[in-house]
Amino acid sequence: MTPATLQHFELHVLLAMLREKGETYSVPLVLALEKRMDRPVAQAAVFIALRRLERKGLVVSRLDEPEGGRPRRYFKLTKQGLAALKAHRTEHARLWQGLGRLLGPRKI
Fold first, then answer.
1. In this predicted structure, what is the pLDDT of residue 99?
2. Which CATH number fits the domain 8-97, given the four candidates 1.10.3720.10, 1.20.140.10, 3.50.50.60, 1.10.10.10?
3. Counting CB atoms within 10 angstroms of each CB, which of 31, 37, 41, 97 has the fewest?
4. Residue spans per domain, the chain
5. What SS3 state is found at 77?
6. What is the pLDDT, as a whole number, of residue 102?
7. pLDDT at residue 106 tops 80
8. CA distances to 30, 41, 50, 68 from 38, in Å
């Protein structure tokens, strides 16, 4: 099975979802991405990526409409989404293999 093709930002959103460990909506993802990436992230960009990921079958969503509150769309990784993350991790590990010494020590 060929893993889904992911854009760079889509991969970031999936990784942020994985860290959330379950259902989440766009605001916590924006905050998590801003913290990890150390730069501003537009909520609209996250929502657009989530919709693309849903069309690819990598996430599913449900609309929660509480009484007296604003509707909120929650997203969750699918088995295909988790498989895509695993495939990309393996692919990236192979691509990075042997390059660490050429780039010098990592700074986190």
1. 82
2. 1.10.10.10
3. 97
4. 8-97
5. strand
6. 83
7. no
8. 11, 9, 21, 35
